[in-house]
Amino acid sequence: MSRTAPFLHRPSARVARPLLVGAALLGSVALAIPTSADAAPHDGVTTAALLSIEDVRAAGLDGDSATLSRTGDAQLDDGGHNDENCLSDKTIRAVTGAKSYPDRGTGQGYADGTWSSTQDKEVYVTEAVAQGATAKDTDRYVATLTSLVTRVRECQEDPAEGFRHAPVRHVDAGGGATADYYATVYADGSRDGGGVAVVRDGTRFGIVSLSSGRDSSASTLKRLATWAAQRLR
């Protein structure tokens, strides 16, 4: 069993992204490291609205590798369980009713990220975010994501032997940003701190998943969900 890395204090402000970036591509064009200007609401959501590698480390995970994209075509993941869930065949574009990149899409920008570790294969965090054109549109997208998460057992071949989610926990991330996170519960009732969260700030929204937080209390998941919500602005 891998040990849980000690908790690090979260940086007070976003710092430069790490040099070790697996693949950050927009189609076939390399994606430049985002600047603070990328986060401007009128520009639409970009990778600046995603978690940083520092957030992953501060949550107690030994993350050292990141893959970023602005296509919105990365498959959504549910707590690292790709075999039986409602999310693995979905993308953030599909949630908004858009076609795959390079189609313009209905959202005002898309971004996906994956954070992992070259030292610890159990470290795996994914995130996908987008921006709706209106609050009403965003309400619908968030409801779709929530439905996919809460109905996860319906997608499993043998629900009795599969996993489910614990009741939702709500977090006020400040400034109007919110996060609803759902811890993964296995068939035997055990938990490893993994799970999924739906985050929102205004018309920006997204989903974050964690394969294992190494803690039954889901405190790691809660940290990531809170910071992901704060990063949306």
TrEMBL record:
Keyword annotations: Signal
Signal sequence coordinates: 1-39
Protein known as: PknH-like extracellular domain-containing protein
Organism the protein comes from: Microlunatus spumicola
